[in-house]
Amino acid sequence: MTDRYAVIGNPIAHSKSPLIHGLFAQATGQDISYTAIEGPLDGFADAVRAFVAAGGRGMNVTLPFKLQAFDIATDPMESARLAGAVNALKFEGERIYAQNFDGLGLVNDIQRNLGVSLAGKRVLICGAGGATRGAILPIAQQGPALLAVANRSADKAHELKADFAAHATLQTGGYADLAGETFDVVLNATSTGLSQAELPLPPGVFAPGALAYELVYGKGLTPFLKQARAAGVTQVVDGVGMLVEQAAEAFEWWRGVRPDTKPVIERLTVPLA
Fold it and tell me: How many CB atoms lie within 10 A of CB 206?
């Protein structure tokens, strides 16, 4: 019997998840269907319950439901608890298991696909929202020399330092606090990739040979990537690899088989220009 999976969000028409999981299923011989569900903004939990009642086995969760997905989970894993947000659900009987694979997908893309080890590196995450929360623990587990979080509101960055104190040592503050510092890996986890606004990064923040990584995907050269290029950075990438890698983590969690991500990343990659 074909097992049912879906991605839920609002809006959802733009989602690449049905294509990605369809390619994974084809490549691994898994008998699944995977659809996109536009969840009502005031009826997320009901939409999930209806999907489960119809035989649904698992779901990916995207904006704006990642926090609500955490609230309905009976068994949130550590990744979800620390992020306070969920991007994958698994349904077994009355239990709703929850994971957040975004940060792991990011780390896998950087290290496996881009060949950049995070061990011993100076890593900067720009932004202090949900994407950063999901990324801190997976990055910290790689043993960077320094993991810094900068945000327009320094107080919000400092909150992360307190929240993750038992799991990671963070340097936190505003962008002005970065003056005189350089980083080997700079990640943009803010919404500037969508809003077309530049980040107030001080000069010299990109170390020679740095990687500039935009978590948004498919938007070409975002203001952040343009900033990086203008600063002489040659390795500038967007988040398409992260998207595919987090999907692979969910697929393996659900199905017990690891799909090959490389051909899917190649298919979805849009030239940055």
Answer: 23
DSSP assignment letter at 109: I
Question: Taking the CB of residue 49, how many other CB atoms lie within 10 A of it?
Answer: 15
Tokens of 155: 């107080």
Residues annotated as catalytic (active site), given as ranges = 66
**Identity at 245, one-letter amino acid code:** E
Q: Are 109 and 89 part of one and the same domain? A: no
On whether both 157 and 67 belong to a single domain, the answer is no
Q: How far apart are CA 73 and CA 258, in angstroms?
A: 24
Is the pTM higher than 0.85? yes
Q: Kindly state whether residues 38 and 93 are assigned to the same domain.
A: yes
Within a domain: 215: yes
CATH code of the domain covering residue 159: 3.40.50.720
Compute the distance between CA of residue 107 and CA of residue 22 in angstroms, rounded to an integer.
23
Distance CA 51, CA 57 (A): 9
CB under 8 Å to 14, separation ≥6 — which residues? none
* 195: CB partners within 8 A, 6+ apart: none
In this structure, is residue 265 part of a structural domain?
no
Tokens of 97: 């298991």
Read off the amino acid at residue 9. Answer: G
Each residue's pLDDT tens digit in the chain (273 positions)?
899 999 999 999 999 999 999 999 999 999 999 999 999 999 999 999 999 999 999 999 998 999 999 999 999 999 999 999 999 999 999 999 999 999 999 999 999 999 999 999 999 999 999 899 999 999 999 999 999 999 999 999 999 999 999 999 999 999 999 999 999 999 999 987 666 778 999 999 999 999 999 999 988 999 999 999 999 999 999 999 999 999 999 999 999 999 999 999 999 999 997
